[in-house]
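Example 4.3 (complexes with small molecules)
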Amino acid sequence: MIFWLAPMDGITNLPYRTIVEEVFEQFWTTGKLRTRTEFMNVNWYMIQPQRLVHHLIFHDQEKKLIAQIYGWVRETLVQTAIDIEKKYPEFMGIELNIGCPSPKVMSCGWGSGMMREKERTLSIIKEISESVSCPFSIKVRTWINEDDKQDRYNILLQAAPYVHCISIHGRTIKQGHSGEVDWEYIRKFKEDVGDTCIVIGNGGIKSFEEAEKRVKENKIDGAMIAQAAIANPWIFTPHTPSIKERYDVIKRHLYLSTAYQLWSQESVPENTDDLSSNKAYLHAFKKYDPNSDESFEFPPLSRHSYKVQMPTKDMIEKKITEISSLTVGKLHSVIEFRKYLFNYIKGLPWSKDLKTQVASINDFETLESAIDTYFTQLLTHE
Ligand SMILES: Cc1cc2nc3c(=O)[nH]c(=O)nc-3n(C[C@H](O)[C@H](O)[C@H](O)COP(=O)(O)O)c2cc1C
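Answer. The structure with flavin mononucleotide bound is encoded below.
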């Protein structure tokens, strides 16, 4: 049985994946955990790789990580998959997102928008799978509404021989990220594909026990958790954290996030390739209407040589030791950290007071002190 931390844009970056992996190793040594990056747009990766590469950054001890990409144009998808495999062979695999329901994403033909042209999407899946040698996977959902489920189901069956793994979020596009999950759809799909590919079920899982139950009762290969795993790394283990353990993880996460930002400020290089010709491509893309029947020609894309030397975990740890002797001050990572903190403290006594206080904090020292004061008070009253 394999558990998956679902890819989440703005959440599953290097610091948070590290937290999830550390908690997992501590409390469920016999289990298997896999992780994915946040999804990365392939168009922008071709044009401004220095900005988009942040979605891909990993450290040397992350061995079970999949890079997730999204887009629409065959050439950019295939080229990006090849580029990632060549430059960052440490990834365990590459995954195409065909499930994102965001109207902004879908209106460009990306994410779930890809399934408007099912046959074309199927042929892109085949082409990427034949262009890379690492395992290639797709992440999908049960489509637009109840009426077109069967149609899309058949396309998925045809895709199965070309992919290593299919993760199915058992909700329709209309449902977004909430509502009932169609586990029967996922169960039947696994039954139909058998061992052709790995099938992971996703949607609405709220606990470790529920994840185990879903895998067993649907005879699937693993379970993937997203929203209930935000600031809840223990969900992938049978362990319930004490307040002290929660406090320790929050502090570790804050330091990791800060160290990671300091590392990336110093170590993520600017792009030096001339990619101005690719701007014509972007310009064309802005004019392109995925709903139009007219054929559309995109200008050719230049490949880039941009590559980041990924950090080792030791480098990040070293940065952590430097933090205590620095005045870190205002950092974007502090603002970003608030959303995790709000989830970490949800349901704890006086958490609303801390939330109100933290909402206006944007420097490291004040945030750390607010967290320390809150937990000292909580632990004294325990
Ligand atoms: C904040 C957020 C960001 C997400 N970003 C991605 C993403 O980058 N790639 C992806 O495939 N799915 C993304 N998803 C969808 C989740 O991976 C998952 O399929 C969905 O939330 C259903 O699982 P859940 O019910 O356990 O939350 C995102 C979901 C959330 C809530």
